[in-house]
Design brief:
alpha/beta; FAD/NAD(P)-binding domain; D-Amino Acid Oxidase, Chain A, domain 2; 8-stranded mixed β-sheet; 6-stranded mixed β-sheet; 28% helix; globular; binds flavin-adenine dinucleotide
Length: 419
């Protein structure tokens, strides 16, 4: 993390709008900018990344596109992703492989039924309530006796996250947006309260408008411009069983099981399941390596503690898990905020600086909506959703390096009950 300087290195490139990060959020913003501007739209857009597109958090996502979010604004962003998938399929004339298996939200106690009603209650999407028998008919790996009630949302699905991100990328390229890989941004340059561009390892990129979509590194990058984001990099993790199509049919719905702190979905005849655990691991944004591939999470135990604690609770709901071996463990860094909401839109302290981050483990699900909302904000167009709840400055002045912030963000992940 570099303090902002008024140095004047050689200008190596320039654009009207530069997006930092070619993960799914940066690419979705680029796609939406391309849609809004059209080819030859009069404004140049450049996306920069030090790694090839979608090789960090995006490549590791379970990619549940869960609609039930507990608030209308977030649910609208997810709904926009489904619309984006449809539009991309039409434009690119290909099937993006959306698996529309539905989501079964499972409640194992009367108290949980009440919170489930709150989660799905105001949904604008269809919801079907089931008893234990009905839930086990839809998802034969569930124990009918262990389920009190369940809410099925048939329009939900999951998708290959890299494939979706690549579709955003290709559509953006068609609209004339440039993507420059191998460029590491060291700092955002601010002069007289306005963004002027980016300092990179190769020189200065001049730009009056910058979108920070740098994922786990976004808080560090924003801090170089003196902007404190209320988020921290937090480990997310899941496991995949050996292939057992006899136990886990390919058309199983996505299962969200807050009583077990778990979610699951079919993965080519195996079961992919995530456990949230009592204690999530949050990292210091100032000490992140530049690549999370093979990242050693310091005090991490490779997820074993969470697996040991969570396994039995999950197997009570899903007994066939006891008969399947575990074949894979996947972990990566999402960003979580202290209040569980995204960080989107203009930074109040710096004119011309915008955020598309704070994904709270839902960046794939909300990518289409986030891309469109942030692009509209950057272009000064009407923003399609109510953005104040996601405003970067909503929690006041924040020290992004404070351990207390990291603890609060880790607790948000551990307490998550949606998909
Ligand atoms: C295990 C796991 C499971 C998940 N499951 C789901 C799920 O089921 N559903 C869901 O919606 N989401 C899920 N997520 C979350 C999802 O992966 C993220 O929300 C999403 O990928 C965030 O995208 P991003 O573009 O912000 O970040 P990233 O994909 O990490 O992209 C950020 C990019 O910025 C680049 N960058 C950063 N700093 C710089 C710099 N200084 N200079 C140049 N480039 C820079 C990086 O190289 C990177 O390519 C999961 C995440 C994990 C880890």
């Amino acid at each position: 993390m570099t303090a902002n300087r008024a140095a004047n290195p050689a200008v190596v490139d320039s654009a009207d709008i530069v997006v930092v990060g070619a993960g799914i959020l940066g690419l979705a913003v680029a796609w939406a900018l391309g849609q809004a501007l059209g080819s030859g739209g009069g404004r140049s857009v450049l996306v920069v990344d030090r790694h090839p597109p979608s090789t960090q958090a995006t490549a590791r996502a379970a990619a549940l596109l869960t609609r039930a979010r507990g608030d209308a604004a977030t649910a609208a962003l997810v709904r926009d992703t489904y619309a984006a998938i449809e539009a991309l399929e039409e434009e690119l004339e290909e099937d993006l492989g959306l698996r529309r298996v539905g989501t079964l939200h499972v409640a194992a106690s009367a108290a949980r039924v009440e919170s489930l009603r709150t989660l799905v209650g105001d949904s604008a999407d269809p919801v079907e309530w089931l008893d234990g028998e009905g839930a086990a008919r839809l998802a034969p790996c569930l124990s009918a006796e262990a389920v009190e009630r369940a809410a099925f949302m048939p329009l939900d699905g999951f998708i290959d996250p890299v494939r979706l991100a690549d579709a955003y990328r290709r559509s953006a390229r068609r609209a004339g947006i440039r993507i420059s890989i191998g460029l590491s941004v060291q700092a955002i340059r601010v002069e007289h309260g306005r963004v002027t561009g980016l300092e990179t390892g190769q020189g200065f990129i001049a730009a009056p408008l910058v979108v920070n979509a740098a994922g786990a590194w976004a808080a560090g990058l924003a801090w170089s411009a003196g902007v404190g984001l209320p988020q921290a990099p937090v480990r997310s993790q899941y496991w995949i069983t050996e292939p057992r199509p006899d136990l886990f049919p390919r058309d199983l719905p996505v299962l969200v099981m807050p009583d077990a702190g778990a979610y699951a979905r079919p993965e080519l005849g195996a079961l992919l399941f995530g456990l949230r655990g009592r204690r999530s691991v949050a990292l210091d944004p100032a000490r992140l390596p530049v690549d999370t591939a093979g990242l050693d999470l310091g005090d991490s135990d490779g997820g074993l503690e969470t697996l040991e604690e969570g396994w039995r609770g999950l197997a009570r709901l899903c007994p066939p898990l006891l008969r399947a071996g575990i074949a894979h463990y996947v972990s990566g860094l999402s960003t979580y905020t202290a209040d569980g909401r995204f960080v989107l839109g203009p930074a109040p302290e710096v004119e011309g600086l915008f955020m598309a981050t704070g994904c709270c483990g839902a960046g794939i699900a909300a990518s289409g909506g986030i891309g469109q909302a942030v692009a509209a904000a950057v272009l000064g167009m009407p923003v399609p959703v109510e953005m104040s709840r996601f405003a970067p400055g909503r929690l006041g002045a924040v020290d992004p390096l404070a351990p207390a912030l990291r603890d609060a963000c880790a607790a948000t992940r551990s307490g998550k009950t949606s998909g």
